[in-house]
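Go through this pair.

…
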Amino acid sequence: MHVIETNTSLAKSDLYSLLNKQTAALIEGETDMIANLANVAALLWMSLEDINWSGFYLWKDGELVLGPFQGKPACVRIGLGSGVCGTAAKRLETVVVEDVEAFPGHIACDSASRSEIVIPMLKNGHLIGVLDVDSPMLSRFDEADKHGLERLVATLLAGTEVV
C-alpha cells in the first residue's frame, strides 16, 4: 500500500515531478494495465486543482473506448478524429484546448468542462489510448501541464503491460 499525499502549493514543475514519482511508486510491481490506469486516474483526480474529469480512453477496434476514470459518467466511444480525444489520437500528439466551445467538433460529455488536455499513449510506436483531463475553467492547461502529463504517461507505460 502506498501513501499518497497531495500538496497543491507546489509550483507546477515540482507538482508534476512529485506526481511522476508517485505514479512510479503506484505501478511498481504491478503490470496490469487496467489497475495501473485506475490508480493514475485517481491520483490525478485528487492531486490536480480545478479539474472535473481525469481518465483514459483505450484504443480498441478502430475507436477510443472509455477506460478507468474519475468524474461524472462519460462518453463511451469516440471515433478517430472526433472531439479532442479523437483528434489527439489521430494526430498522435498532445492537444491542449483553452476553450472547448471554440474547438470544432468538441464532444460535450460534461457541460461544465471548459478546457481540456489530451495526451496520446504510445507503446512501441502504437496507439493504445489517451489520457484525458478536463477542467471547468477556461485556459486551465499550459505547457507545464503538457510536459508534466506527457512524462507521467511515459512513466506509466514503461511499467505497464499493454494488452
Observations:
- The mean pLDDT is 92.
- The longest helix spans residues 12-27.
- Helices lie at 12-27, 33-47, 83-91, 143-158.
